[in-house]
């Protein structure tokens, strides 16, 4: 659903640019609260995850860029992914905080307050706005590390599902809008044993070599996005089958 929304926003953005129609939008905001992150991340890393899971193994952390704009592209297997991905790639590993793109429904109430102040920002699937696209582009321009699940939904199995094109379109839009950003897309495979995790389950995270978006930035964005997603899907299959 997130991927479909990105596509709608991008198409809307391109149409508006061609027609020069001004739009009035609600700003998209999020931040990483220093005090909240300093409390929540250690709590999850040293207490919640070790208590719930029997083992957590991470392979390939040497592939994580320590600087520059990055899009992490994990397979999506469980709601636990929102804690596992920061455990494997976040501030205790790279010194960087993650920025999650989430649905607007997840931003309600107390949960939404936590997500917003831990770097998450909302995408409204029913009424997508150009403000969301601009915010994502600006985060990449600032050299942030974004998390976008390219399969689009949670799949509780052990296979890579067809990827949605929204991630590639967003990355290419950023790379061409801000010349030579050097965006990297990092494939990640998450494995739970059993596949529907319960207390005592095992988790393995496999991180592959990053793809350089600059290599796909010449010519048609649509065709380049297809090539980029094909290569990302191939990379996910490779690390998923290791």
From TrEMBL:
Q: Which SMART domains match?
A: PlsC (SM00563)
Identify the residues that the record assigns to the Phospholipid/glycerol acyltransferase domain, covering every copy.
Answer: 70-193
Q: Which InterPro entries match?
A: Plipid/glycerol_acylTrfase (IPR002123)
> Which CDD domains did the record assign?
LPLAT_AGPAT-like
Decide whether keyword Transferase is in the record: yes
List, alphabetically, the Pfam families matched. Answer: Acyltransferase
One function term, GO molecular function aspect = 1-acylglycerol-3-phosphate O-acyltransferase activity
Task: Keywords in alphabetical order, please.
Answer: Acyltransferase, Transferase
Q: Which GO terms describe its biological process?
A: phosphatidic acid biosynthetic process
Alphabetical list of PANTHER family matching this protein: 1-ACYL-SN-GLYCEROL-3-PHOSPHATE ACYLTRANSFERASE
Q: What is the protein name given in its UniProt record?
A: Phospholipid/glycerol acyltransferase domain-containing protein
Lineage, opening ranks: Bacteria, Bacillati, Cyanobacteriota, Cyanophyceae, Oscillatoriophycideae
């Amino acid at each position: 659903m997130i991927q479909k929304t990105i596509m709608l926003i991008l198409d809307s953005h391109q149409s508006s640019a061609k027609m020069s129609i001004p739009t009035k939008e609600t700003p998209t905001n999020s931040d990483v609260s220093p005090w909240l992150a300093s409390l929540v991340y250690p709590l999850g890393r040293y207490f919640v995850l070790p208590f719930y899971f029997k083992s957590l193994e991470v392979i390939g952390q040497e592939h994580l860029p320590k600087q520059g704009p990055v899009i992490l592209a994990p397979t999506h297997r469980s709601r636990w992914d929102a804690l596992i991905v920061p455990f494997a790639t976040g501030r205790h590993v790279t010194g960087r905080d993650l920025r999650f793109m989430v649905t607007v429904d997840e931003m309600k109430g107390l949960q939404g307050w936590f997500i917003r102040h831990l770097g998450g920002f909302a995408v409204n699937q029913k009424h997508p706005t150009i403000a969301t696209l601009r915010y994502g582009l600006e985060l990449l321009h600032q050299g942030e590390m974004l998390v976008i699940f390219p399969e689009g939904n949670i799949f509780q199995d052990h296979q890579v599902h067809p990827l949605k094109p929204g991630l590639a379109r967003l990355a290419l839009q950023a790379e061409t809008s801000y010349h030579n950003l050097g965006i990297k897309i990092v494939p990640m495979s998450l494995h739970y044993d059993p596949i529907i995790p319960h207390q005592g389950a095992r988790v393995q995270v496999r991180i592959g070599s990053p793809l350089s978006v600059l290599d796909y930035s010449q010519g048609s964005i649509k065709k380049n996005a297809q090539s980029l997603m094909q290569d990302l899907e191939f990379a996910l299959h490779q690390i998923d089958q290791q």
